[in-house]
Specification:
The complex is a heterodimer of chains A (271) and B (359). Chain A has 271 residues and is α/β, with parallel strands linked by helices. Chain A contains 12 helices and 10 strands. The longest helix of chain A is centred in the middle third of the chain and has 19 residues, at 137-155. Chain B has 359 residues and is mostly helical. Helices cover 72% and strands 2% of the residues of chain B. Chain B is built from 15 helices and 2 strands. Chain B has a two-stranded antiparallel ribbon with strand order 1-2. Chain B starts with 12 loop residues before the first helix and ends in a 5-residue tail after the last helix. The model of chain B has no long low-confidence stretch (mean pLDDT 85). Classes of the chains: A alpha/beta (271), B mainly alpha (359). Chain A binds chain B through residues 67, 69, 88-90, 92-94, 98-99, 101, 105-110, 114, 117-119, 121-122, 124, 126, 128, 131-134, 138-139, 142-143, 146-147, 150, 181, 185, and chain B through 12-14, 17, 199, 202-203, 205-208, 210-211, 213-214, 216-218, 220-228, 235, 283.
């Protein structure tokens, strides 16, 4: 796995590509608790950007700021060159940001197919009247999107669970369906919150392959949070490290790995 | 053996996305429709049609309405009866103001008034959920029930305070009022219910239904898919109240033929419809029919069916027994099969598919 994936990392082309999302001096407080303080970093178009850090470092809060669940008190976030103030999650979705969750957030009562179809909601334009008829343009549209969804199902190799309710699927498959749902939105920026948490080695390898394929085939920019350092070092082009809400390092995997502050954060430091 | 999809291959997505993808289901549906349209008017007497079939249809429609809100979108409402009342009064006001307009059109339009009121009382649903929302809709129930009695404009300042359904013709045949025959009223109810069920089925199987279920199952993720929570919830309230409103108008115009509407649309009716949805199956259209058949016809069967079979049971006792039975069954259902009769139906079909070799 290592030898193959290593080729992907550190390609010089990536260094030059434009900035897709810039986080500038963002601070987020919950009452007196500072979740994020003065963090700046950027995500370039087409790269795999990892956000790592010990538990409680503010990684998930950072993602929540990016897709509009939280409003940072200070600082600004620029996506595709546009500065966003009060961002709502559905507006972030419309702008092209998709997301998976740390603990799977699927629609449990719906089938795999319906879950992924939900990802197409924003792309479906037919209104209430046609939906109530479910014939003519509404049906044409439904079929057109079903075709896209079937491609995603094919890509993720989940054909066999197409019609099963997702609540009853094993955890690894649920994570895959959730990735599929995010992909159905055809996002420009895909945020993955611990896509490999709780998986066994084989499932992790599958997920790594899917992430790389998404990045390379569809050209989707990916920001991921992950605790498995092997995965992070192999997959990502650049890594940003947070600790207690502060950024302590930013750079290529090899740079970060050698950084003394990062080693201290993970291994602890003698006093 | 007879119910099996073996050999029925889907070659288009359209065929795969059909509401009834299995041929035997479509045949079954056709048979049910044939019985409903031809069999029941032929066999059933006036009593059967007026006190079993018409109530069943009216309650089915109301249950579908509540199921869209509670079963599909996950918002509990205890104001269904009030929204039904809005439909009934709107239909009454409109048909007295514009006597020339087709009564079917007015019944459908009265649903729009109900939808508007439903949206108004649905506004808090963005902020509150679960029990708290149930209490908020309870406010709708009490307020509207109060209005039905205290605002005489609603019943045209009748001395009796009741809705008096006037006679209205459709193609020269009386459909409402005293001289409308049970068969005519039954056919009108049946057509309305079929058409509206078809619309409901289309809605829940498409984009809108998916966004409702997404809101129900995981509202955070739904928002992330670009679904606006307020819009989705209010749309559910609107559609649900529309169905309730039409059911209410049908109830007064095609079933009761008038009466003290304030007494009819009380909290007990709201609860009854909630029971129908729960016993029938949350998030299932066919479950709404099962639930309505069960709750609406059980009292009639107890009251008239058992004496007819020779079981001595006085009217009052039958009523008490019905109460106890419905209560006990609700508890049994909540424990044994929380997904209701619809799930039992599904399990039955699954068993039938593999019968006689279930391995």
């Amino acid at each position: 796995m290592n030898a193959e994936l290593m080729n992907v990392t550190g390609e010089p082309i990536r260094e030059k590509s434009e900035v897709l999302l810039a986080v500038q001096n963002v601070s987020l407080r919950f009452g007196g608790v500072k979740a994020i303080s003065d963090v700046s970093f950027d995500i370039r178009k087409g790269e795999v950007r990892a956000i790592i850090g010990p538990n409680g470092a503010g990684k998930t809060s950072m993602l929540n700021c990016i897709n509009g669940f939280y409003q940072p008190q200070e600082g600004q976030i620029t996506f595709k060159g546009q500065r966003r103030d009060r961002m709502k999650p559905h507006r972030a979705a419309a702008a092209g940001i998709a997301r998976t969750f740390q603990n799977v957030a699927l629609f449990k009562g719906m089938s795999t197919l319906d879950n992924i179809m939900t990802g197409r909601t924003l792309k479906m334009k037919r209104g209430f009247f046609w939906q109530a008829l479910r014939h003519g343009p509404a049906m044409t549209e439904e079929i057109e999107h079903r075709r896209v969804v079937e491609d995603i199902i094919d890509f993720l190799q989940i054909e066999h669970i197409r019609k099963l309710p997702v609540g009853k699927l094993p955890y690894g498959l649920q994570k895959r369906v959730e990735l599929g749902r995010a992909l159905a939105m055809e996002p420009e920026l895909l945020l993955l919150d611990e896509p490999m948490a709780g998986m066994n080695l084989e499932e992790k390898e599958d997920m790594c392959r899917f992430i790389l394929d998404v990045n390379q085939q569809f050209g989707t920019t990916i920001a991921l949070i992950e605790h498995d350092m092997g995965v992070v070092m192999d997959l990502s082009d650049r890594v940003v490290v947070l600790e207690y809400g502060r950024k302590i390092a930013d750079g290529t995997p090899s740079e970060v790995k050698a950084d003394q502050k990062v080693i201290d954060a993970y291994l602890g430091v003698a006093h | 053996m007879f119910y099996r999809e073996a050999g029925q291959f889907k070659s288009t997505y359209q065929a795969d996305m059909a509401v009834f993808p299995i041929r035997q289901d479509r045949i079954g549906l056709a048979v049910i429709l044939l019985i409903a349209f031809i069999g029941i008017p032929l066999i059933g007497n006036d009593f059967f049609i007026t006190s079993v079939m018409i109530p069943f249809l009216v309650f089915s429609l109301a249950a579908i309405g509540l199921n869209i809100l509670t079963g599909y979108t996950g918002l509990i409402s205890l104001g269904t009866a009030a929204f039904m009342g809005v439909g009934a009064y709107a239909a009454y006001k409109m048909t007295t103001a514009f006597p020339g307009v087709n009564i079917i059109v007015l019944i459908l339009v009265s649903g729009l008034f109900s939808a508007a009121i439903g949206v108004l009382f649905g506004l808090p649903s963005l902020r509150i959920k679960g029990f708290y929302l149930a209490v908020a809709t309870l406010a709708a129930q009490f307020f509207l029930q109060w209005a039905f009695v205290r605002v005489p404009w609603l019943f045209n300042y009748n001395a009796s305070g009741a809705i008096e359904v006037p006679q209205r013709l459709l193609f020269g045949i009386p459909v409402t009022g005293a001289s409308a025959s049970p068969e005519t009223r039954y056919y009108v109810c049946l057509c309305l219910v079929i058409v509206m069920t078809w619309f409901a089925s289309n809605l829940v199987h498409g984009k809108i239904g998916r966004s409702w279920m997404a809101v129900r199952d995981m509202d955070i993720a739904a928002e992330l898919m670009g679904i606006k929570l307020l819009t989705a919830k209010l749309l559910a309230f609107a559609v649900s109240s529309f169905y309730a409103g039409v059911a209410g108008a049908m109830m007064i115009f095609l079933w009761y033929g008038g009466g003290e509407a304030a007494d009819v649309f009380n909290i007990r009716l709201s609860f009854n419809i909630l029971f129908m949805v729960i016993i029938g199956g949350l998030g299932s259209l066919i479950g709404s029919f099962f639930g309505a058949a069960f709750i609406a016809s059980l009292p009639t069967i107890m009251k008239f069916g058992l004496p007819a079979l020779g079981v001595p049971l006085s009217g009052a006792t039958a009523e008490h027994v019905t109460f106890m039975l419905v209560g006990a069954l609700i508890i049994v259902f909540l424990i044994v099969e929380p997904h209701g009769l619809a799930r039992l139906w599904q399990i039955g079909k699954q068993k039938l598919r593999t019968w006689p070799f279930p391995y």
